[in-house]
Design goal:
With about 140 residues, the chain is an alpha/beta fold. The protein has one domain: Hexapeptide repeat proteins (UDP N-Acetylglucosamine Acyltransferase, domain 1, 3 Solenoid), CATH 2.160.10.10. About 10% of the residues lie in helices and about 25% in strands. The chain contains two helices and 18 strands. Strands 1-4-7-10-13-16-18 form a seven-stranded parallel sheet, with no helix packed on it. Strands 3-6-9-12-15 form a five-stranded parallel sheet, with no helix packed on it. Strands 2-5-8-11 form a four-stranded parallel sheet, with no helix packed on it. The protein is globular, with a radius of gyration of 15 Å.
């Protein structure tokens, strides 16, 4: 759950490295609160009043809605959509074509499978796939360790 990327980021920060971010010229970033070491690929939209932490990857076509708070070390696959007023904590993975209802909180280390719509808050370490895990009983540590 992005822990390898987090480990290297932390290691280089402790050694005094400055971390740069990349924002593709075709993306629209309307927020002034963006951390470091973020990669914003093509055709991404980060809407006004959102806060972006450090070491995140926003792949092509992703959308971060207004007034969202995005933590550290998250990965948003292509065409992921986070609706307005959402909180995404740290070390989460969003598969291709995922979306959230507005006002949702995603805790830490969740894996959201491709083509999923999240309509309720997720606790930490949830593997989210409505068909395979509808009651959210499987933890990511049970699947990916």
């Amino acid at each position: 759950m992005n822990s390898v990327r987090e480990k290297f980021y932390t290691k280089f920060k402790l050694k005094g490295f400055n971390m740069a971010s990349f924002i593709h010229p075709s993306s629209y970033v309307y927020s002034l609160k963006i951390g470091e070491n973020n990669f914003v690929m093509d055709n991404v939209s980060i809407n006004p009043f959102s806060k972006i932490g450090n070491n995140n990857i926003f792949w092509s076509g992703s959308i971060i809605g207004h007034h969202c708070t995005i933590g550290n070390n998250n990965f948003f696959s292509g065409n992921s959509t986070i609706s307005g007023n959402c909180i995404v904590k740290k070390n989460n993975f969003f598969g291709v074509n995922t979306s959230t209802k507005d006002g949702i909180t995603i805790s830490n280390k969740c894996f959201i499978d491709a083509n999923q719509h999240i309509n309720k808050d997720l606790k930490s370490e949830v593997y989210f796939n409505n068909k395979i895990n509808p009651k959210q009983i499987l933890k990511t540590s049970q699947i990916f360790d």
